[in-house]
Amino acid sequence: MAYRTRWTRLICGVAVAATAALVAAGCTSGSASTAAQGTGSAPAVTAAQAGQVLNTYFAASDKAARTGDEALVLSGVTGVAQAEVRNFFKAYRALHQSPPLPRFSYQTPTLYLPTPAGYPRWFAASVTRSLRPPLADTIVATPQPMVMVFTQAGATAPWLLASAYHVAGSMPKLAVNSAGQIPVVATSQTAGLLSRPDVVGPLLAAVVDEGASSPAARAVSTDPYTMSLYQVGRAGNGFITPRGDVRQWELDGSTYPQFALRTADGGALVFFTMYLNTTIAVPAELNQSRPINPGPPIAIPGDMRWMLPAGTVPRVKLERQDLYNFAAIDPPAGGGKIKVIAAGSFLNYAWAS
Fold first, then answer.
1. Nearest CA to 230 among 2, 5, 1?
2. Which pLDDT value is given to residue 101?
3. Cβ-based neighbours of 317, under 8 Å, separated by 6 or more
4. Quick check: 50 and 113 in contact, CB under 8 A?
5. Angle, CA of 148, 40 and 191, to the nearest 5°
6. Looking at residue 228, what is its pLDDT?
7. Domain ranges of the chain
8. Under a CB-based contact definition with an 8 Å cutoff, are residues 118 and 106 in contact?
């Protein structure tokens, strides 16, 4: 068995980490997420509006959990959150499960209201959720701090949950103006930051792919969470690699919108989404050479089986794609390293041959 990572979209991220000057200059990954830049005039989001959006979402998602109404919960989500809900229900049905679905109670949220920047409007909220009965009676689960981002595409469009994150560290103190709003940071901004916000993802990817030895580690904290993602890739993300096959992984950019808020110390809190792609294949498949001779059967991890046809026995290639939401602190220049403080993930895609 051999393993290797792919470099096609990481060269830029590694090079940009070589010096602080290049980090500040900015470099974009070939598949990096596009920035969510507002267009047109839009009123500021008020605390009352944001609170109502949260209450409406909490009520609808709880009703959907009680009734198994997929359409109801899908009506309140968009983007990566929509993909997660769709795949959750697909897995639920494939595993022949039936209600009860998980239900949650929520503590009083903390709202992060951005300065007006046109449409799409958005805001974030941090809140701690706890599992409710009946599952809470059978599953031991500690309360989970979360961060949620909601967006509104236009003046008459509904507010929808766009992404959710499990907080692994402490939320940073954010800058607040006299109106109680938090300044938005353009994802292309360079002045005053360690990195352009839209380069945070590629830099993180270099460390997740290559570990603490990556030159990008000069700019990215190699804390236990970041290194655990590296270990997930190195260990195979649940795959068992047959002798003679090759395994490779990479954390790659996505086209989901990015958002960034100003922190009190002049840095940025950046919200973004990436793909973790893992593949096992015979060498000829990965090298794109011919002929491609099948190898030993590749075992399918249990959490992937529902996504593949029954009886699938891959002997050439098995690949999976997980979607990861990240919230990371992009510090002010000279103020430390990029640090992931919140994340969420789910299986998005699987394919075998």
1. 5
2. 82
3. 279, 280, 281, 282, 285, 298, 351, 352, 353
4. yes
5. 70
6. 81
7. 1-37+186-353, 38-181
8. no
The DSSP result for 111-148, as a single string, is: EE-BPP--BSEEEEEEEEEEEPTTGGGTS----EEEEE
Contact 253, 33 (CB under 8 A): yes
Q: Which three-class secondary structure string do you get for 64-106?
A: HHHHCCHHHHHCCECHHHHHHHHHHHHHHHHCCCCCCCCCEEE
**How many beta carbons lie within 10 A of that of residue 223, not counting itself?**
14
pTM, to two decimals: 0.86
pLDDT at position 249 is 83
Rg (CA), the chain: 21
Q: How many CB atoms lie within 10 A of CB 140?
A: 6
Predicted local confidence at residue 11, as pLDDT: 31
Along the chain (353 residues), what's the average pLDDT of each consecutive run of 10 residues? 42 33 35 48 92 95 90 94 92 76 91 92 95 70 91 95 90 94 94 94 90 89 81 73 85 92 97 92 83 89 90 92 94 92 92 92
Domain at 38-181: CATH code? 3.10.450
pLDDT at residue 45, as a whole number: 94
DSSP 193: B
Beta bridge mates, 122? 151
Tally of CA atoms within 13 A in the half-sphere of 166 that contains its CB: 10
The closest alpha carbon to 270, from 112, 103, 106, belongs to: 112
Q: Are 174 and 264 in contact (CB under 8 A)?
A: yes
Phi, psi of 269, deg, nearest 5? -100, 115
Q: Where do the H-state alpha helices sit in the chain?
A: 11-16, 20-25, 47-67, 70-74, 79-94, 200-210, 224-235, 283-287
Output the six-digit token pair for 307.
């996504």
Closest of 125, 111, 121 to residue 37, by C-alpha: 121
pLDDT of residue 38: 59
Extract the tokens encoding 34.
């596009």
The pLDDT of residue 59 is 94
